[in-house]
Structures are given as structure tokens and as C-alpha cells.
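Section 3.1: Structural characterization of target chains.
Under the original work plan, the team committed to producing a structural model for every single-chain target entering the pipeline before any wet-lab resources were allocated. The record below documents one such target. The sequence was received from the expression subgroup and is listed exactly as submitted; it comprises 416 residues.
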Amino acid sequence: MPDSPSDTANPAFPAATQACFDGQPTAIVERDGVRYTLLGTAHVSQASVDCVRAAIATGDFDAVAVELDAQRLQALDDPDALARLDLVRVLREGRAALFAANLGLAAYQRRLAEQLGVEPGAELKAAAREARARGLPVQLVDRDVGLTFRRAMARLGWWTRMKVGSGLLAGLFFDEEVDGDQVEGLKQGDMLEASFGEFARENPVLYEVIIAERDQYMAARLRDTPREAPGAREVLAVVGAGHLQGLARHLAGDTGEPAAVQAGLSTVPEKSGIPWFTLAPTEFVLGGFAGGFWRGGAALGGDLVLYWVLLTGTLGAIGCALAGGHPLSCVAAFVASPLTPLHPALASGTVSALVEAWLRKPTYADFMALRDDVQSIRGWWRNRVARVLLNFFLTSLGTAIGVWLGGARMLGRLLG
């Protein structure tokens, strides 16, 4: 195994195969009777697409592995898959923010395609299609993108999570040209890393989750080749150039059981200790009400409760209304907002968005037009899918403002 990516030059391959790799970073690792040819690609390069197709066409490989998970491959192969999404289920499972982040990633990829004339990840799509066309086993070796996102968010502080999330979501609202540094990063690195922008370059935790962990995960997946593709002895692994060195190192040197390695990298670490950030608002609100009744009896306690309900409920309903929510969605926001700090399952944004999705069910046309509509401000209110997401975020924002203002008023009355 080479210590660093290099052009493949192995006499076991015919000259025609050698020629496919000219100018492309590669590495070869032999392990457990299988020889893995790791081909480092640029996610926005037609040359990488041509190289992948030519390499598979030689017939020298028994199986092909690609840096994709099932969700990303489906998005590349079947753009209509979005139209079959169960939006209500997404909301019930608390995945609205993740869905919005995926939309931000899709919008970023679209801008790249329009700017550069090459579909991001086209070489990975070509690898899967060419392999299937020739009846070769295809291994999807990357970790699920949603899991990677959740692991990254779980390890970041609250403020950094807000910055990263807002940066991803900003891509839905602003159709800016992708800068040169990001394009160069895609030629040498990784799609997810480029999507996170400067945060991934400056934050060691993000780099570890987005790049280093996936190197280890993909190496474990490749070591499963004898089980997933029995009889395969020559495997072509098509991965972003940024993964080449780390993947080769883990593939050659890791000794842990592949299944155990994958399992360890497929969980979202739970926060240790007492979740004070979640419990503190509940304790403050309930303590404030109790303090009001204790200090001022029913008059002060009742006043605090009434003010809290009216303020948080009204601001939550206003947020829903600003999102163009149905009147019944606004009522749901008003009812749920005062209860949001008391029980996470009653989050006002989720409740109002569920009611909105139930009353104004998104159509097939809404899903198909989603990527175009979110490129304009007006489109967010016109598209029913986007409007449900707006409902979730603006109702949550209105409730949050109400909680802060209501808490300040409660504290002032108790200390005054």
C-alpha cells in the first residue's frame, strides 16, 4: 500500500487499464485475498467520469464500490423519489430540520451543476450504473448522510450548531455563485465537507465526523467484500480524492471486526449528564408559576399564567400566520406554544406543521417543483412542502421569542 495517493502502476493490469488511471490519484491495497484499487475522483470533473467508465469497461474488476449511501444514490438515480416522501412521517419523527438541511445540500449541488456544467457526484452515479449494466456487484460503502449530519450536530456546541444549520439553510434562500475555494475543495476533497463550508475547515470535530469517521467506516464496509460479493478478487472503489489516503490506511491496517466498526460509527452519541438545557426552561416556568401563587396568591399567580399563555400563544400563532398557515394551524400553534417549554413532544412548530400538512396535503407537483420553488422567496409560500417547513421554523421562532419575553416578565414581577 502506498503511503500517499499515486498513479497506479501494477503489471497485473493490462496497459489499457493502466491508461484509464493516467492523471488520477489511486492507491492499491491487498487484503484477505482481495485487491482493492482505490480511485480518487473529483466530484465536479468530467475527466473523473470518463476515467470511471473506462476502468469498468476494461472488464478487469469483479465488483465496484462507490462512496454513496442508499439515500444519495436514490437521489442521483431517481429525482422523482422526493415526490414519494411521507412529509407527515418526517414531522412526526422530528426530522424537519434534517429534511431542510438535505434541501440545502441539494440546492448547493444544483448551483454547482449550473455553474460548472457537471452534475456533482456524476462519477459516482456513472460507477454504479456502469457496474450494474455489466452485471457486477455494487457496494454502497458510505455512511448514511443523515446519520453523519446527526452525529456532527450531536458533538457540536449549541452556538456552533446554530451557525452550521443557518449556513446550510441559507443555501435555500440565496442563489449565490459557489466561490473558487469551494470548487477547488471539491476537486480535491469531499462533497459533504465542501457543503459545510468554512465550518468544516475550521472545526476539528466536524472534520473528524465528516471525513475521518467516514474513512474508517468505508474501510470497514470494503472489508466486508468477501461476504457481500463472494468470489470477488478485484474491486474498484470509487471515492472522493479527499478520502484516498485515510481510506487506504484504514483498509490496510484496521483489525477490528468490520461489523463492530460500522456499528460503533452508526450511533448518535447521547449527551452525558443531566440535560440542563432542556430541563431549565421547564423548571423556570413551573417555578415561576409556583412562586407567583406563593407570593401573591391567585391574583399574581393567575396573572402570570394568563400573561404566559397569551404571549407565547399569540407569538407562536403569528409565526404560523407569517408562514401562510391555515387558520386551524394557527390555532394549533396558539395552543401548543405555551406548553412547548414544558414538554419537548409538544413542540409548537411540529404541532402546527403537522396540522398544516394534514389540512393542505402537499401534492406530487409540489414535491417535483420544490427544488425550483425554494430558489425564490415567493416560491416558499407558493409551494406546500416549503410552506410546511416555513410553518415549522417561524412558529418555533415565534414561540421562542414569547418564551424569552414571558420569562423576563415573570422574573420582573417576582423580583419587583
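The chain has a mean pLDDT of 79.
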